[in-house]
Amino acid sequence: MTAEQKNNITRVINDYSRRLLGFIRKRVKNDADAQDILQDVFYQFIGNTKPIEQVTAWLFTVARNKITDRRRKHRPEALEDIYSAEDGDTAFDWTELFFDNSDNPETEYLRTLFWEALNNALAELPPEQREVFVLNEIDRVPFKEIAAQTGETVNTLLSRKRYAVLHLRERLRVLKDELLNY
Fold this sequence. Notes:
By secondary structure, the protein is an all-alpha fold. It is about 75% helix and about 0% strand. The chain contains nine helices and no strands. The protein has helices spanning about 5-25, 30-45, 55-75, 80-85, 95-100, 105-125, 125-140, 145-150, 155-180. The radius of gyration is 23 Å and the shape is elongated.
């Protein structure tokens, strides 16, 4: 690498670091992720061998793509995320219903309400989302096996499950609110 190339790279990094980091911070959960993405963007910039006509557009496009890639790589939401109490609210937790072995009629009634609400919410989902959710969360089939069975990509399956989880979380929140505020 020539001295001129090094100077150009240094100039671009100095000129764009703050703006790019601000752009990334608004779109990720924490500062460490933002710093990692910024580093990846500049690493790709340094390794680029083709001329870049519009550096600003190129850098922000790469940053947006890196943010999207990072979101896709994160572990999919689990069924436990649906059941667990949110915002530190320990007054009611769905998981308590599953691990309570007593023959308490109230617990049995709450379990029945939960499964009825879950089945109704599952029935509202598009068939593809419902199938992925049931196979992965209830039948415990790994995404790679589901992908092999259905011919869909793992990313598509993850996306479908995510939408299912969001819908189910909302529906179970409604039931929880009704039970707590009745």
